[in-house]
Every structure is written in structure tokens, then in C-alpha cells.
Amino acid sequence: MRPLRMIAVAGLVLAGLLVSPAGPAHAADSYTFTHQGNPILADGSYYSADPAPLVAGDQLYIYTGHDQAGPTTNDFQMNEWGTLRTGDVQSGQWTHFPSLARPETLFSWATAGRAYAGQVVQGPDGRYYWYLPVSERNSTAADKFAIGLAVSDSPTGPWTDYIGGPLISQRVPAANDIQNIDPTVLVENGHVYVYWGTFGQLRVLEYQPDMKTPVGTQKSVTGLTGFFEAPWLFARNGTYYLAYAGNNAGPTSSCTPANYHACIAYATSSSPTGPWTYRGTVLTPVSSTTSHPGIIQFNGQWYITYHTADAVGGGHFRRSVAIDKVEWDDTQSPPRMKMVVQTPVKQRDRTPRANIAQEAKVTVSNDPVPTQYWVKSLNDEIVRANPLPPDMWGTWTGNNPAQQWVQYTWDQPMRVSGSQIDFWNDQPQGSGVGVAAPAKWKIQYWNLGTGQWADVPNPSGYPTATAGFQNTTFDPVTTTQVRAIFDASTNGSTYSAVAVEEWKVLAAQPASVTAPAITVEVGETDLPGTVPVTFGAETLQVPVYWDPVTAADVAEPHQFTVKGSVLGYAAGQVSAPVTVVSPGDTAGDVTAPTLTLTPSGSAGTGGWFRSTVKVRVAAVDDRGGRMTIESKVDGGAAASASPVRYTDVTVSGDGQHTVSATATDRAGNTSAAATLPVRIDATAPVSTGTVDAAARRVSVTASDATSGVARIEYAVDTGAWATYTGAIAAPDSNKHTVSFRALDNAGNLETARTATIAADLSGPMSGNVGPIATPTASYTASWNSVTALNDNADPANPAQAQIWGTWSGTRPATQWVQYDWARPIRLTGAELKFWKDSNRGTGDGVAEPDGWKLQYWDGAAWLDVAAAGAYGTSTTAFNTVSFTPVTTSRLRATVNANGNGTTYSAVAVTEWRVFADDPGTVPATVPVTVTVQPRCIAGKAYLAVQARNDHDSAVDIAVETAYGDRAFAAVVPGANAYQSFAVRAGSIPAGTVTVRATGTVGGKDVTTPITADYGTLTC
Hints:
Layout: E1 31-34, E2 47-56, E3 59-67, E4 78-86, E5 93-101, H1 103-106, E6 119-122, E7 128-135, E8 145-152, E9 160-161, E10 184-188, E11 191-198, E12 201-207, E13 214-220, E14 227-236, E15 239-246, E16 263-269, E17 277-283, E18 294-298, E19 301-308, E20 320-326, E21 328-329, E22 336-337, E23 361-364, E24 393-394, E25 403-423, E26 440-447, E27 452-455, E28 470-487, E29 499-507, E30 518-521, E31 530-535, E32 538-546, E33 559-566, E34 574-581, E35 594-600, E36 608-609, E37 613-620, E38 627-633, E39 639-644, E40 646-651, E41 655-664, E42 674-680, E43 686-692, E44 697-703, E45 709-716, E46 722-723, E47 728-729, E48 736-744, E49 753-757, E50 765-768, E51 774-777, E52 804-805, E53 814-834, E54 851-857, E55 862-864, E56 879-896, E57 908-918, E58 928-937, E59 940-949, E60 955-961, E61 964-971, E62 976-982, E63 987-988, E64 991-1001, E65 1004-1014, E66 1017-1018
Parallel strand pairs: 30-34, 36-42
Antiparallel strand pairs: 1-5, 2-3, 3-4, 4-5, 6-7, 7-8, 8-9, 10-11, 11-12, 12-13, 14-15, 15-16, 16-17, 18-19, 19-20, 21-22, 23-25, 24-29, 25-28, 25-29, 26-27, 26-28, 31-32, 32-33, 33-34, 35-37, 37-40, 38-39, 38-41, 41-42, 43-44, 44-47, 45-46, 45-48, 48-49, 50-57, 51-53, 52-57, 53-56, 53-57, ...
């Protein structure tokens, strides 16, 4: 098993390595230890991974790889295989054989290292066969991984090479183009079935009983939802099961929200070769990014083996094998594997400390979070020296906004006074790409008095370094919500993303905490969830986590002492006396309980909540006993809970609600009904931007169905946010991006939307006109960006967001990029720079192309530019091409990918410049011919005006004279607008007539004024 492609895997071939001829591989010295629990090897002395169980006689063997990476190394360093053996899983007694075999000593044709996941099975001849992925020394294939086959008379060796070369590779027994690792094998009734593969590609091939001679040809396997790697094949009662590491990541995935994590999913079939039907998940993501199943029956019990990062000093590349029971639901057909319960069950860390973030609900501005990140990492209190993307919350999408935020919400008011934050970056500040520390940031708290967000008072500073925790202290505040607002780093036109590995919020420390006495009934093991904590004149009910109370502790009336950790109190645990009373002690009780209804959720402004609200209905009785509490929401049915001290009522749905409740004690005394109004608006407003292309401005409207729109905000390019009061005009003739968002009266802030005002191209165009074009492409990899083509940046070491690239599992022979302009421009040349991470001839990765050419759109077809210069393919310098000038609104570069004869490498470009020498455009006019003629009719003077529409579409014509005006609507092409104006005199002095013609020219509404003079006339 190895990571997703985004993790760099260095040097699979160790060039020049000297090895001696391979011989039998013997087991290293074994040793026996006892450890009941998981991981099996938990002390960090040996990290094991990729478990493959085998039952041989009365023993269970778990074959593993050996993780040997350093604590900060993000790569698999695996040089050997070993095994763990036990005769009784529950006893915890294991014998460890740490080094059964190494690739280079077992197989003379293999290199050292990359001892990945293998499996041992017993063949029909009674011998043991070990299918092992290794790197083939002299392979010419694009991927050198192959599967070797070793044989032994014993489960612990010695092992010898059974074939003398690969059993499976990209060359044998037939060509394939997948990475040949992760074999799983089933031997049944003289048939041998082998599945193998990774990166979503799975193959199956049957072999003869000799374990090495193929039967038929390899086939691709389908039907496995989210298959990524690590298949495991087994049978139970005539049904075949195929478990695997799944990775259909996403916010609604039943497997995992982050694409670096994997669940263990499975499918079933009535045949060992399929077809397969997906059945669901059996193991949720573990603490390591990878996951690898091995499922087997031993001593009448089914088990799953897997690996985690839970050993001392463990990590994603320092994994350790675990084992847990698999239970079955045989009421279904086919029988279903129940979800595995990982042991030991993780318990809350009750270590006293000031940090309270671990108990907060997390919300973020970029929900849903991009699948390479994991929002849970923000407050999991795990900080790795060299984290991978799922070890942090991040915002990178390739189109990053100017601002992002993280918010913590607690159910109870907390007193806070500090913060520790750990930023992560892969690009420097000011780059405007990748992930960089924010340009600036701040902390705000929810002011419980005003119902508004406010900056924390007197912050010590907001450092933005990315080496360790950045500390901020401030004057203590009492709040239920805290948020960090990050202004993203920018280069003036684009923004970097933000990433945080951990954010701690530190509680203010009281002088001391004294827990009050507790009264419980016989059999009641739940203790109060809060204790009073005093800060000067203010007392808060703060969560407390008690040491477990057993049934024996409360079996009869008596007194005992319990210890607990108060959230945020770092000085140590607190102790409380507990009195156990009889529930039947009700004689003389005539006092009704008292009720308190307390809402918790994401508080908004104006008394609104911006989330589902939990209302805790708590009752107190003077006798200290438990009660029956009835509650309901609005006009719904009443819910009853008994015997309890409190019950939680969930209120959801936008709008105004009412929670009502009563409490009845054991003596039958019922409280008066208590009510609480709850207003919820959890939906952000929606804004719409409309671009007036002719006027070059953006108008914005917004709506909100529940609390109403409070205001609209906008920003032009990288400018500050301002309140919207009217249409937003472009400040100059350049292209501009207008961001806008709406805020409702509950405090929901819409995720910013954008509208683009195109550059004004009416003037002369010269130099590089790429940045004012709209780029498109045949395909763009999800981690690259098509806008990198014309971001006017040419960094020496570009980040992935600064590259247009086409890497995918299937790469065609040609790709293209295209620029579109709002009007035709006279173009004279272009230049672009390629990028690579692989050599030519590999057919993989990203390589220099074989060639490329430029084409322009003539209005009907793509034509090659004329008299083009040489088309270079350099990845270190711009490849400049001049050509005969052509006037066009579209230019395309078609790139021919390099290949190995079978597959093609991807292509990538860091920047594409296009040069213009364009005089601009003459201001658009509406073509109308105006004729003016003074006339005499019956001794009276008249002025005759005629305007002919010479345009290709209808125009509106307005005639203005000294003797009156006349308007003509929608004069069709070729028609005349005519009017004779009476002068009411016998003569006409010389003058001027103005005709205004309005029509559409070049997609714009244009009004052209035309004047015509006339002379004197006497009748």
C-alpha cells in the first residue's frame, strides 16, 4: 500500500546498487511478548504495516511490511517483511519474526526497498506461497513495480524465488499500464485467483494449481464503489467477499470526507471472479492516511487486521498493525459484515490544560471543505512535524477569495484570554498562489451583551510565521463563540489559500475551582456536566469531565469522592463529595421542581441563531432526586424523559419556534410550564450580480427569506470591502473583478460571488494582450488552473496553481488552450513556456511536447497562422513565434503530447503571451443618410427632412429642427423617416437640422448625432 498520487514517491530504482545473488531468505531471531490491545506492537520499537493474516494449523500469522521512515519523512521506507504469530488472540501473547525476507536478497532481479503489501497462502501442494510487490531492477516499463512469488515449506521460511522473475508486471504475463502491487490470493478447490492493483485500477487473473501458470487473460474489475487500493479476497459459506481501501471522498461520502484518508469497504459475489456488488463500509478511516484490510476466521471467530498510526511515535509512514473482531448479520442475504468497533475505544483526554478548542463545534467559511483537507484537524490537538494535507484545514481550490474564517462555538459561555495557532504554507507571502500565511488576521468574539461580533480587546499581536504556534494574548472576555478571520496573502491580482494545522483557544485561569457537593440516586452514574467557576464578580457554569463512576459506587446510599477535569482549568483536577440517596425518599415532599431552559447554537445578531439549536431543559428538585421531564417544540407531540435531571430538545428549521416543558418529581409535584422562544435563520442570503457591458458596471440585488437582508458589500479586485449603495462602475479601462456578498439580519454572511467587467478594447491594443483574454482549454487537472496561462506571472519554481496542466489517468495525443477577446484584435506573435516533471519517452507524468502550432478563428473555421516561425518546446525559456499579422477574436495553441508508443505524457504551460499591434476601433456609429430641403407650397415655406436607415437592423430616429421635432421608432433597414415642418412664414433663413439615430452596433447600443445645414429660401 502506498499513498495517493499527490504524495511524492521518490526514486523507486536505487541506481548502481550492488547485491549478491539471491538465496533462501531466513527468519531473523524471533522474540515473544504479551500485549493485550491495539496496536499489537504499540511501544514504537517496530512499526508494522499492510497486514495479511494466514491460519496455519492452530496458529494465526499476520505478515507485515516494516515501516522505517523517520518521524518527519513523508515517504514509505520499507525494506523488509516480517510476521506476527499467536495461538490465542485474546491472550495477547505474540511471537514476532521481524525480518523474514528482503526484496534484494529474495529476488535477484529486484532492487532493495519498497517492500510493499504481500500475502501468504497455502498451495494445493501444502507449501506456502508469498506474493510480494517489489521494484524490478532492469525493467524498461514506465512503472517498475512487479509481483514476485516466493515459496517455503514453513510459514516462517526459509523462502526462495519460485519463478526467477516477475509473476506479474507491466510486461508479463501480458502488457498492462497499471501499478502492479497489493496482491490478494484465494486458493479454492485447485483454483488460484489473484487480484491486484491500485490507484483505482484493479485486475484479476486465474492461475493453475502450480500457482504460477495463468489461466486465460487478466481482466479489469468493476462494481467496487470508491475502490482505491489494498484488495482482500475471501469466502464465507459460499459467498465471496472483496474488501478494499475505498476513497470516494466528499462531504456526503459514507467512506471519508478527505481524499487522503481511506475507509475499508467491501463487495460480494457468488463467484470468486465477480461480478461484484458494493455492500458498504466495514471500517471507518483510521489514524493513518492509508488503510489496509486482512480478514480471516481463526478459532471460530472472524477478525480484521489493519494498521493505524497509534503506536508511540507513530505516523502516516510509521504504522502499526491492529486486530479486531468482525461480527456478521446473517439475517441478510448475502450476510453483511457489521461495522467494526476499533479497540481500544478512544476516550476523552482528561489531562488538565488551558486549551478548550477540542470541545468546540467547528464551522468554517469554505464549507464544504476541499477534499484534500480535513476540518477535524483544527482542534484534534495533533501537530505533526511534516504534515500532509489531511493534517490541516485548508482553503486551496485554485480560485481563492480574499478572506476566510474559522469559528469555534461552545454550548456554555467560556472565559477566554488567548490563542495559539499553527499556520502551514507551501508558498511565500505575496505570491498570490498556493498556500501562504495570511497577510493579516484577527480574532473576534461574540459579545453576549450586544449580540454582535467584536474584536478581542488589547491583543498582543497577530504573528503570521509558519514555524510552530503563533501566540496571541488579550484581555479576558466571556463568550460562546470565537472566530479567526484571515485576510489572504495576495500578489495584487490573485490570492493564496490559507491553511491551519491546529488552533488552540486558551481559557482564562481562575484563582481556584471548588466543586460543589453532588447528590445522586442509587444506580445513577451520570454526574452533573458543569461546575461553577468564578472570575471576579462573574460565575460561569463550566463543563467538567469526571473520572468514571461505576455501578458499585452508587449501589447503595453512602458517600464517596470523585475527581474530574474542568474544561480549560490547567491547575489540576478538582474533587467533589458525592452523596447517594434512595429514590424512594419522597415523604413530605410538596415542593415542585424548578425548570431552566438554556439554548445553545451558533448565535447570530438580533436574537437569531444561525444553526440548529439545542435547548437544554434542566430541572432541580429540593430533594435532589431525578424527575420526569416533558417537552415539545411548537405544536408538536410531547416527548417524555424519565428519570432524568435534564433533557435536550433539538430545534431546527428556519423560522420562529417555541419550546415548552414541565417537570414532575417522584412525589408527583409538577412545575409550571416554562417556555422559550427560539428564532433560527441558518440560511445565508443570496445575491445576484448583473453586468452592464455597455456601461461597464455591475448592479447587485440580494434576498433573504427569513431574517431579511441587512446589507450588501462589494470589493473591486483586491480592494477593501465597502457597503453597496448603487451600481459599481469600473474605475478605468482595464479588466476588473467585482466581488460581492450579502449579510442578513441574523448575521449570515454569504460566500462572496464575483462578476467580471471586461476591459474596454475600443482603444489601440499593443504588447501582450493575453491578460485581457478569457482562457479555455481542452482539459485542466484539478490541482492546476487554466487562469495560470494569463496571470502575467512567470515564477522560477511555479506552484501547481500557477500551471495549466493536463495530467489525468487517461491522456490524449493532443491538447489545446485558447484565448477569446471581446472584439477582433490585430495579432502579430505569441510565446509560451512549457513545464515538465518527467522525461520524454516515458509516456507518463508531464513532459515536453513533440510540437505545437497556433491557429486563429476566421469566423467559420480554425486556420493555421501564416508564415509562422519555429515552434520551440523549451521548459526553461519562452518559445517565441512570430507570424503574418491577423485580425481575429480567438487564438488557439494546439499541443502534440510526447509518448512512449503506447501512452502519452501530459502537457503543461506556465504562461502564454500573445502580442498585438492593433490601431483600435473607430467609434461605432449608426449609418443614416440625412437630406434637408426648404420648399415653397402655396406661398408658404416648409422644411422637408428625410433620414434613410443604411444600417443592417432597425434604428430609432429623432429629428430636431427650429420648427418642431419628430421621433420615428424602429425604422427598418432601407426605409426613410420623412417629415415636412411648416415654417408659417413666406421665407426660411439658413439653419441646421440635427438627427439622432439610435441602434445596436457591435453588440452595443449606440446613438449617433448627425447634423445637416440648409440655405435661405424666399417664396
